[in-house]
Amino acid sequence: MNLREIFGRVSSFFHKPERDRELDAEMQAHFEIAIEENVRRGMSEQEARRQALIRFGGVERAKEEQRASRGLPWLDVLLQDLRYTLRTLKRDPMFSVIAVLILALGIGANIAVFSVVNAILLRPLPFHDPDRLMWIAPADANGLSASTYSADAYDDLLTMNKSYEDVTGYFAFSTNDNFKLTGHGDPKPITGISVTQNFFAALGVTPELGRSFTKQEAIKGGPAVVLLSHAFWVRQFGGDRGLIGRSITLDNAPVTVVGVLPETFDFGAVFSPGTKVDIFVPVVMDDIRPWGNTLALIGRLKPSVSVAQAQAEAKVLFPKFYWSKKYPESVGGYTARPFELKQYVSGKVRRSLIVLWCAVGMILLIVCVNLSNLMLARAAARNKEFALRSALGAGRGRLVRQLLTESMVLAGMGAVLGLALAFVITSYLAHQGSLALPLLSSVRVDGAALAWTLGISVGAAVLFGLLPG
Amino acid sequence: MTQTKLDLLQGTLDLMVLQTLTSMGSLHGYGIARRIEQVSGDEVLLNQGTIYASLVRLQQRNWIAAEWGTSDNNRKAKYYSITKEGRGQLAKDAAYWRRLTSVMGRVLSASAGEEM
Q: For A122, A151, A416, B99, which has the most beta carbons within 10 A of its beta carbon?
């Protein structure tokens, strides 16, 4: 079918009455000319008409054939089925409302859970090239204090490893509201995290404004600087671009604001679900050196290094590290088995999420079975209708198509309502700061969720539409 | 004739219509149908009504053009004529059919004449 023919067919589809009138006129002329010719050949008027009709064949059939070859017959059938479906559903409003409502619940729950699963398990972390990021912790780590390393160990890892482009870390034992902001009205408690100087560069996060930390700022006695989270910058400083380079007062000391992080970077969402981090300051290694295991470590693998290679290296490398070099006997206490950061972030909730996912899937299945029963009860009542339709010439395929259209319409309405429901649920969830789920704020109904909706609605429609038949 | 009439193969009617319009110039639906019946010696099974599906298809492909006109006896009728594109298509399809029929002829006669 070339482009012009498609255009012709579409145009015919939208100009049915005119095309039909024209065809009628054309056939009318056909008969008149034919009868005239027959009469000239010596037939009676009546015989001439009879012969013309015989030679022409079925008039309605010829019209149908002409319509099919000029227009979009499948679309005609679909529209016919849709109109019929809507009439049928309107005739039995209780059935329709109940069917749509329970479908909406089933589908809505599925979309909402899928959106959470998508955000936490399926979507990549909001960092540059997140697949290369490794969480470095002992194999049997369980809780933060067992998965942190000392400053001396970190320094040795940084210089001795051959697997990583960069290794970074953050001070793992910050508490909420550990800083006090003054000079802007009442003193205000805010939450800050100390990160190693290369933290943002290693994750591939570029500040939205200003710059990240320099090496000087991470040595003892260096200039005091701070990076603000986007949310805090907007909330506290009204998004003032002039703030960069000026100083604010933290714990009664002036600290220079060097930058603002992008809105997409949410430390709490990834590393410590449920917390909102306002500011970031550089870790001064010499300050934390005597404090023992305080750093949680993240490494970015070199492009040529595999996870298995990094794990093999860690096995021999980590036992060489010191808890503190002041105590030579403190060597050999460390092990590590690096694994993907994504796995670390989603790992804790992975199993419960998959269980939840299966559970809502089962709910949808139950919904479908129930609807099947309803449809079955209706099918018994509609026996006569189908008998009549097949007596009038509807084939089995045509009847199935009609039934399928009906269940598609029901599932479609259920899906629209379910989508609205899921939208409400997800936007509620995304603003639930107290829920300790990672990446929760990025939960939303997106394209993937829409595709999922489409898939499960069609699946459900086929399931409850055809099963009874 | 005691033989039953030939069923038209898919696509052959379109080809016949194009050929008829090439040799006869402008013609209305009934005229085309009659002409095909006559030329084929009444051997094809043609319900004249089926010609209209073929005509509208050819028209939408721009292989024929249609225009309302008046017949010799002063009747209004829709007249069809072949377009330049239609002539090109006819040449292509006719060549195809000639090849097909000659191959079919060879195959069907080979089994009788050239047995090893």
A: A151
